Amino acid sequence: MREAIRTFCDITKLSKEEIGYLLGFFVGDGYIKKGKTQIIFALSLNDVENGILNKLKGIIEKTGKRTWICKRKNKSIQLVLSSKELVRYLRETLWFEEGNKSRTVHLKCLKHSKDFLKGFLAGLIDSDGNANRYAFIITISYKLGDQVIKICNKLSIHTNEYRYLTSKLNLARKISLWNSDVKREFIPSIKLQNSSWFNSKRRKNLWIMDIITEMPQIFTFSNIVKKSSVNPGLVWILLNDRLINKRHYLKKLKRGIYQKTSKFPVSI
Q: Among residues 175, 195, 173, which one has the least CA distance to residue 183?
């Protein structure tokens, strides 16, 4: 009788961004089978159509491990693999209680590279978030919510937060990421890449940045950058090396979020 050959899971073959994505997706929609070394990722049919399944499967197979797909009666799909090494790595990097992962899971520390943190955010967006009109992440783990905000601050991504009670009376935190910051940092999320607003905004801002690069003497902190030919109704202004929309600035100024300074006059 032929013996089964056990393959070793070599995580060092993955980039920091891919490791972060794998951990982020596990935090959102993964779990370890109790008493075993099986890791299961839960996906929907939309994830299959959008290409999230192929990306996740490709990252895992880079480590030398094989995966198999199980179809459930509720029209969901499970991506399953068995690896002692990956289970050990997950337990070393993440902290969560057995049987109560959703409410307790979080990173043990935030001392990771920028690429790792970008991948981690992308994994969270593709599993426990979305990117229809804007990118957001929903979690009922209070510590994870705090860590997401800290990670966004490290990456210079502004966030807004909304809290509400779920049907099971859990306190959920919906953390929204500013579109302009997400687009500038290029978070490698499949849902972001498939969203129409991400692609259009990205093209427009790249066009404006090209103008600034070609004619830098025209654009100062006290002048209008340019009326965009893509959308003539928008006036863009350069503030602290960021492109700010005039209408957005005036709205935030009334709420006290932006301060009126001589470098950025309101009377334009």
A: 195
Q: What is the pTM of this model?
A: 0.73
Lowest mean pLDDT among 77-81, 225-229, 249-253: 225-229
Cβ-count burial of 132 within 10 angstroms (0-12 exposed, 13-18 middle, 19+ buried)? exposed
Cβ pair 28, 84 in contact under 8 A: no
- Domains annotated for the chain, with CATH where assigned, are 11-185 (3.10.28.10), 196-254 (no CATH)
